[in-house]
Amino acid sequence: MSWTDKLSATRAGLRNLNGAIPDTAKAFGALGKSVKQGGTLDYKTKEFVALGISVADRCEPCISLHVEALAKAGATREEVADVLSMCIQMGGGPSMMYAAKALECYDELTT
To answer: CA distances (Å), 101 to each of 7, 27, 54, 71, 74, in order?
Structure first.
């Protein structure tokens, strides 16, 4: 399955869940909006942090959503790769496997 297909499936699953728990979904959405707009770090930096956590937690749907956000924010392949190298340093072999997935996702979504 391509990363574009994975993104579509993730969004469909989230729409389904949001319909079942609208109050929770609305509150979670407000939290996301608040943390991305406030504070001292810029949006792209925050998405780099989110990508690092996605790799460390081995969450493919999270990887796809945050790589897409980074691509839209103008992150370069070199910047993404640099973040992924920190993920590998902190998480070892399992992070290396998911870092490879994240770079593959970036390459697909930006070509």
So the answer is: 13, 30, 11, 15, 19
Q: What is the pTM of this model?
A: 0.88
The per-residue pLDDT for range 21-67, each reduced to its tens digit, is 999 999 999 999 999 998 999 999 999 999 999 999 999 999 999 99
Rounded CA-CA distance 89/100 in Å is 14
Domain that residue 13 falls in: 3-109
Kindly report the CATH number assigned to the domain that includes residue 97.
1.20.1290.10
Nearest to 87, CA basis, from 68, 103, 104, 69: 103
Q: How many domains does the chain contain in total?
A: 1
Amino acid at 83: V
Find out whether 76 and 69 touch, Cβ atoms under 8 Å. Answer: no
Q: Tell me the C-alpha distance between 69 and 61, whole Å.
A: 13
The answer to whether the CB of 89 falls within 8 A of the CB of 31 is no
